[in-house]
Design goal:
This protein folds into three domains: about 5-90, no CATH class; about 125-235, Butyryl-CoA Dehydrogenase, subunit A, domain 2 (Beta Barrel); about 250-395, Butyryl-CoA Dehydrogenase, subunit A, domain 3, CATH 1.20.140.10. About 45% of the residues lie in helices and about 15% in strands. It contains twelve helices and eight strands. It has helices at about 5-25, 35-50, 70-80, 90-105, 105-115, 235-245, 255-275, 280-285, 295-325, 335-355, 365-375, 385-395, and strands at about 125, 140-145, 150-160, 170-175, 185-190, 200-205, 210-225, 225-230. The chain has a four-stranded mixed sheet with strand order 1-4-5-8. Strand 6 (about 200-205) and strand 7 (about 210-225) form a beta hairpin. Helix 1 (about 5-25) runs parallel beside helix 3 (about 70-80), helix 6 packs parallel to helix 10 and helix 10 (about 335-355) runs antiparallel to helix 12. The two termini are about 40 Å apart.
Length: about 400
């Protein structure tokens, strides 16, 4: 694994940094999961598209720059370095798009990808159902064949649909063969949420934002052109999407490195308030407490641990990109990856709240980040499920 940047990559970083610093929106932006904030984020991401920074690793004909995965990682580092937020279009560009490139027809790619990149169409993910959360194979929403019209009739309900209240389209699984085994007889559909028979019901998160939606399907007709992959072979297609969600695409190292840099700055400020302790030894720190009675040495070690975790995640991602560049395809390792980043995210924010002490509840940025991090071990398949996958498929342990 060669971690030396090429001249082209250095130039790419400089160009990205200059453009982002010159064009970044006023920060902080309103939450992207709010009625007020979603259109603001969408407009910002359309500006990224206009300058061909929205999807840098995509082909130029779809709005990208034909950039390598290394260059995409560089862009992500620069994007998060200046404090820019997660993308509200991420379920489309980071989850559905890689699956479309792998399984989509040429007509589907030409029709869907440019509108996705430009934020004309905003995609949400229709996986979970009331009786099928992390057990994706347990879904019961149905797809019935309609030969006369050349398509399918969808019935059922999807829930915990992230940003579903604001999105225009949904991708998800429906059971197209009720007599097949659990992981078979499923078909992957691309659905326009404006179709007759669809009801979208917003669901508030406990922070007050409309972060989710329930989506109801009542005899919704979807044409054959909106089936992604083969009929009754949707499980394979969905696993490609979940691999992106758990693995490389959704959580780039740049996001966590930026959080750690903010965390270090927060610690230094707190240490300074307690007597300029950032350069003191652990032994000197050990007996010193801040104004909230916290041991400064303990906080210092936790911040150092956060830095090491973020660097370890970056190196692991670099290894994954190296393997992909050699023609390898990510597999169940993405589950191990998901466990690591989701639990690291909580640890980073918990450390910040410890440093802030009683002030934590008044710091909306760190508190909101902490609240969001708590969902990490749940979405994209709970970490309990991911540990089972790691045990069985990576370690070769027997099933219970």
């Amino acid at each position: 694994m060669d971690l030396t940047y090429t001249e082209r990559e250095i130039q790419f970083r400089d160009e990205a940094r200059q453009w982002l610093e010159a064009n970044a929106p006023c920060l902080p932006m309103p939450p992207g999961d709010s009625e007020e904030g979603f259109p603001v984020h969408r407009a910002w991401e359309h500006k990224l598209y206009d300058a061909r920074w929205a999807v840098v690793s995509w082909p130029a004909k779809y709005g990208g720059r034909d950039a390598t995965l290394w260059e995409w990682l560089i862009f992500e580092e620069e994007y998060y370095r200046i404090g820019l937020p997660q993308r509200v279009a991420q379920n489309g560009i980071f989850l559905l798009a890689p699956t479309l490139f792998e399984f989509g027809t040429q007509e589907q790619k030409d029709r869907i990808l440019p509108r996705m990149a430009s934020t004309q169409d905003m995609w949400c993910q229709g996986w979970s159902e009331p009786n099928a959360g992390s057990d994706l194979a347990g879904i019961s929403s149905k797809a019935s064949r309609d030969d006369k019209r050349g398509g399918w009739i969808l019935n059922g309900q999807k829930t915990w649909t992230t940003r579903g209240a604001f999105c225009t389209h949904l991708f998800g699984l429906f059971r197209s063969d009720p007599n097949a085994e659990r992981h078979k007889g499923l078909t992957y559909f691309l659905v326009d949420l404006s179709l007759p028979g669809i009801t979208v019901r917003p669901v508030n998160k406990f922070d007050g934002d409309i972060g989710f939606a329930e989506v109801f399907f009542d005899d919704v007709f979807v044409s054959d052109s909106d089936v992604l992959g083969q009929v009754n072979k949707g499980w394979e297609v969905a696993m490609a999407t979940t691999g992106s969600e758990r693995g490389l695409s959704l959580r780039s190292p740049g996001r966590f490195i930026a959080v750690v840099e903010r965390l270090i700055a927060l610690y230094k400020q707190e240490a300074s308030n307690s007597g300029d302790l950032q350069n003191a030894s652990d032994d000197q720190n050990g007996a010193v407490q801040n104004s909230y009675g916290q041991n400064i040495g303990d906080l210092r070690r936790q911040v150092a641990d956060c830095w090491m975790k973020a660097q370890a995640y970056k190196l692991s991602t670099d290894q994954t990109v190296s393997l992909i560049a050699q023609g390898n395809k990510p597999g169940p390792e993405s589950s191990l990856n998901k466990i690591f980043w989701s639990e690291m995210d909580i640890f980073l924010h918990e450390t910040a709240l410890r440093i802030l002490g009683p002030r934590a509840s008044a710091d909306s940025e760190w508190m909101k980040g902490f609240e969001f991090s708590l969902a990490g071990p749940i979405y994209a398949g709970t970490n309990e499920i991911q540990r089972n996958i790691v045990a069985e498929r990576l370690l070769g342990l027997p099933r219970k």
